[in-house]
Every structure is written in structure tokens, then in C-alpha cells.
Task: inverse folding
């Protein structure tokens, strides 16, 4: 009977498409077994949880083959209420990362690739040493949306104070390093350098700035989106998470081939680096919410706005979009950056308070 009981106590945890199913009874046991584990607390009725499920299971499959393997687990918080209370679960899905039993917040994305990328970053060194062949394979792998590679000796300040320092502060990019000779296969030459690899527009983007983490960050952040891009869920992080000033041209989708769009695209190329350049509709999903936030309605279309996410200031170009030129867009962007343009406020029209004992103010003149 004792032997039978021992076998039962170490019975394998239930698996659901590669994801461990944890309960009040087996949570601590599995946590002790797994040095690295990502846990999702979910509710069966939660729409966001259902959307996450196939991505989470896909990540579990990839990470199960890692050396060492990384466990992905889930807890039905509506059934395992003791666990939900223990971890203070108040919304779904909530994900926690456990390393050596120590809990921390999961701050990665909600797709298979972003989950895998975040975990690989958290479970390994800030930058991984690769051979030339392995680096070529990494840069060709489209699941690595962005990859930052350092070429050169590891005793260089460009490596220690710039590359590694940035790697320690950034969870959403893969960082690797390789021998200086490996740069030749990418058409590069010269001294030690840092390169951003991506899978759109210019694939190879060499950094030529100072050995400074913040300078490298300022170089890389704008390159994480195309020169001109349509605003979507994927760019929320680039604009609001990274707090990058962004010009947004709101227009009807039927105007995608209009002359003003061609002018805007040319202006984005000419003035690249000053701000990000995006365009958006106003009726679908996240674009509708952006338009509402920016105070744009159908009657305004088409219209050019600028958002400065750091302090949520919004600016509206005064001219009709049809009158825009590459030069006028550049001048307007620079004037906004220099503080010469007043922020745009959603406001009623100011009223004439002449002779009135009580002054009526609106948003514009508050």
C-alpha cells in the first residue's frame, strides 16, 4: 500500500495541448520541479483568454524543446479559488513568470513569437554568443522580429556599456554577439559595431553612435516600425510604450491612393527620424479608439495630427491635407518639436464674456 501511495503522489501532471494544468493541490509541487515556469490564470468565459490560448499552446510547444525546457502552465481561477486569492488575481488573463520559485510580472506580448522571445530573454544571459553560421540562421528566422547583434571583442565599451546595458533593460528584442569577422557575411567591415536586424525595409541597420545605452536606444526605437505604417494593435507599444512622437494622417480608406498620401509618404522618407509617421482610419477597432482619443470625427477627414505620448499632447495641422507639401510637413513637425505650436484641445467654441459678471470658459481658453 505504501508503494502504491508513493506512485500516486508522483503521478504526472495533466497536460492540455502541451500546457500544464495546475490546481490548488499540485501547484507548489510543480513549481518546485520547474526552475522556469510561466503561469496563466484564466477564466473559461474570458474572451481575451480564448484568443490567447492557441498562441500560448504554440509557445509551449516551442519552449518544450528548449535546453533546458521551459514549462508553460495554466490555472482556472474560477475553480482554483485558493490559488487565485493567493496571487491576488483580479483580471483575466493574468500571467506570472517564476524563476527558481520567485514570482515576477510577465511583461511580454500575447502572440506565440513574443511569448517565446520574452521567455528566452528572461531565462538566459542578456546577450547570447553565436557562431557566424548560427547568427546567419538567427537573422533569417522571421520569428525574431528584431535582433540586435554586436560584432567584436567583449572587453569593448560598445559591448559592456552599450550592447549589454541595453539588453538588460529591453525584454522585447533578442540580443546576440559574435566574432568581428562574422559581420562580413552581411556586407559590413571595420571596427566593432552594433547592428539592428529586422524583416522589413532595410534589413541591416548599423549603429554608428557613441558607446552609450541611451544613444543606442534612441537609434533603435524608431527603426522598430516602417517609415510609414498603418496604425494597429502592433504599433501601440512603438508609439505609446516607447513614448515616441508620432504624426498620424487620418483619412478614409478609399483615399489610400490619393495624391496627399503620396506626399505624406515622401515627407516621411525626407524627415525620417524626427517623428514616426503613421496613418489611420476612424471606424475599425483600435483605429476608432485612437480617433476618439485624438478628437477626430468623419467631418474632419482627412486631417493631420501629431501626438506626443510622454505628456499626451496633441497637435492639429491647420491647413487642408490637400495643400500639404513635403516641406510644409517638415516645417510643421519641427515647429511642434520646438514648442512653437499650441496643443489641440477638444473644446466648445469660446464665448464672448464682455459685460458678463461670470466668465464662461471652455477647454480652448481655460
Result:
Amino acid at each position: 500500500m505504501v508503494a502504491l501511495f508513493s506512485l500516486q503522489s508522483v503521478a504526472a501532471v495533466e497536460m492540455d495541448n502541451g500546457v500544464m494544468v495546475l490546481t490548488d493541490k499540485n501547484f507548489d509541487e510543480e513549481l518546485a520541479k520547474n526552475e522556469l515556469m510561466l503561469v496563466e490564470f484564466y477564466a473559461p468565459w474570458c474572451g481575451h483568454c480564448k484568443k490567447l490560448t492557441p498562441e500560448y499552446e504554440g509557445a509551449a510547444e516551442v519552449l518544450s524543446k528548449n535546453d533546458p525546457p521551459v514549462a508553460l502552465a495554466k490555472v482556472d481561477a474560477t475553480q482554483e479559488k485558493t490559488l487565485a486569492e493567493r496571487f491576488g488575481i483580479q483580471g483575466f488573463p493574468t500571467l506570472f513568470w517564476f524563476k527558481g520559485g520567485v514570482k515576477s510580472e510577465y511583461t511580454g506580448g500575447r502572440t506565440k513569437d513574443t511569448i517565446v522571445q520574452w521567455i528566452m530573454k528572461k531565462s538566459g544571459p542578456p546577450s547570447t554568443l553565436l557562431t557566424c553560421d548560427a547568427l546567419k540562421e538567427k537573422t533569417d528566422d522571421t520569428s525574431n522580429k528584431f535582433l540586435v547583434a554586436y560584432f567584436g571583442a567583449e572587453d569593448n565599451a560598445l559591448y559592456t556599456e552599450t550592447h549589454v546595458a541595453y539588453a538588460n533593460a529591453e525584454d522585447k528584442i533578442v540580443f546576440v554577439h559574435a566574432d568581428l569577422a562574422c559581420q562580413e557575411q552581411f556586407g559590413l567591415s571595420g571596427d566593432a559595431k552594433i547592428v539592428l536586424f529586422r524583416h522589413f525595409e532595410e534589413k541591416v541597420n548599423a549603429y554608428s553612435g557613441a558607446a552609450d545605452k541611451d544613444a543606442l536606444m534612441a537609434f533603435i526605437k524608431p527603426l522598430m516600425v516602417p517609415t510609414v505604417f498603418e496604425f494597429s494593435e502592433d504599433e501601440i507599444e512603438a508609439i505609446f510604450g516607447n513614448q515616441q512622437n508620432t504624426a498620424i494622417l487620418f483619412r478614409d480608406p478609399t483615399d489610400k491612393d490619393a495624391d496627399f498620401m503620396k506626399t505624406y509618404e515622401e515627407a516621411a522618407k525626407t524627415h525620417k527620424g524626427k517623428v514616426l509617421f503613421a496613418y489611420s482610419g476612424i471606424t475599425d477597432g483600435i483605429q476608432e479608439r485612437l480617433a476618439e482619443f485624438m478628437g477626430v470625427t468623419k467631418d474632419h477627414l482627412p486631417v493631420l495630427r501629431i501626438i506626443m505620448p510622454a505628456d499626451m499632447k496633441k497637435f492639429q495641422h491647420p491647413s487642408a491635407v490637400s495643400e500639404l507639401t513635403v516641406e510644409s510637413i517638415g516645417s510643421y513637425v519641427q515647429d511642434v518639436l520646438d514648442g512653437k505650436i499650441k496643443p489641440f484641445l477638444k473644446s466648445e467654441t469660446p464665448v464672448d464674456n464682455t459685460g458678463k459678471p461670470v466668465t464662461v470658459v471652455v477647454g480652448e481658453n481655460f
